[in-house]
């Protein structure tokens, strides 16, 4: 198997006041064995990369985080709003775009390459969740559905992981209309760009979370499209790997 063997692991840790029992991270593209165009830490099995390379990359993820690789709760993401409740490593893998758990050592995991990963925890450090918020899932209410799995929204904090930034995410009127139909105020997250718009996923997510009752939202500082050495971007490259965002209880 050809390998790049890039051992320079680059893992992002949320800057948020989570309880000590909560652990979270987002990977970058550096630190794995996949070759171009998946170089090098591709964690997605569905993108055309060699199965052996992905398996080794997932093993490295487990070693880096200290997790049992069989207790990382991967999902079959479909740009929907279903939330899977994880009580053990699921077999078969659930078709969902978010997951939630109270089980220690069992990670909620989301794969992205421009879509927005959102990590959640309660202030008591007893429950965590992760959501895959591309524009379809975001407009459909995946964040609200994930938040509904917590007893009290005002006791939850959220972190917005690496996603395509507001200067790079071009969409059509049909996308804008889906958000404006939900709340006209969402129109402020769209900037006219010729006959299309530049959309701000981070701003849209913050508004949705705030309206749902969360008063503590962190992150939203990256742009996957404009940092090719650091992040995968489907919009930029088409054929590319996937990064992972994980959250778990100690």
Describe the protein's architecture and organization.
- The mean pLDDT is 95.
- It contains six helices and 14 strands.
- It is globular.
- The strands form three sheets. A six-stranded mixed β-sheet has the order 4-5-8-7-9-13. A five-stranded mixed β-sheet has the order 1-2-14-6-3. A three-stranded antiparallel β-sheet has the order 10-12-11.
- Strand 11 (190-193) and strand 12 (196-199) form a beta hairpin.
- It has a single domain (11-249), classed as 4-Layer Sandwich (CNF1/YfiH-like putative cysteine hydrolases), CATH 3.60.140.
- With 250 residues, the chain is an alpha+beta fold.
Summarize model confidence as the mean pLDDT.
95
Structural class: alpha+beta
**CATH topology category name:** CNF1/YfiH-like putative cysteine hydrolases
Give the number of helices. 6
Within the largest sheet, what's the order of strands? 4-5-8-7-9-13
Strands, total number: 14
CATH superfamily annotation:
CNF1/YfiH-like putative cysteine hydrolases
Main sheet: strands, sense, barrel: 6 strands, mixed
CATH arch. level architecture? 4-Layer Sandwich
The stretches of 5 or more residues where confidence is low (pLDDT under 50) are none
Give me the Rg, rounded: 17 Å
Order of helices and strands: EEHEEEEEEHHEEHEEHEHE
């Amino acid at each position: 198997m050809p390998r790049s063997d890039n051992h320079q692991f680059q893992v992002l840790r949320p800057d948020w006041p989570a309880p000590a029992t909560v652990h979270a991270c987002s990977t970058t593209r550096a630190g794995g064995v996949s070759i171009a165009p998946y170089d090098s830490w591709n964690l997605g099995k569905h993108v055309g990369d060699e199965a052996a390379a992905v398996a080794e990359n997932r093993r490295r993820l487990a070693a880096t985080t200290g997790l049992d690789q069989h207790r990382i709760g991967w999902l079959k993401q479909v740009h929907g709003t279903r939330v899977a409740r994880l009580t053990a490593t699921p077999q078969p893998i659930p078709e969902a775009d978010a997951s939630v758990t109270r089980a220690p050592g069992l990670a909620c995991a989301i794969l992205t390459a421009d879509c927005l990963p959102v990590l959640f925890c309660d202030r008591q450090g007893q429950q965590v969740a992760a959501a895959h918020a591309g524009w379809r899932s975001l407009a459909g209410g995946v964040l609200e559905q994930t938040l509904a799995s917590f007893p009290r929204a005002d006791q939850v904090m959220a972190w917005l992981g690496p996603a395509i930034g507001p200067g790079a995410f071009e969409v059509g009127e049909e996308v804008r209309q889906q958000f404006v139909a939900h709340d006209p105020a969402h129109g402020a997250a769209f900037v006219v760009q010729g006959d299309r718009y530049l959309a701000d996923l981070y701003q849209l997510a913050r508004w949705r979370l705030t309206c749902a009752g969360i008063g503590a939202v962190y992150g939203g500082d990256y742009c996957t499209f404009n940092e090719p050495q650091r992040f995968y971007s489907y919009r930029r490259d088409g054929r590319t790997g996937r990064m992972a965002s994980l959250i778990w209880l100690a």
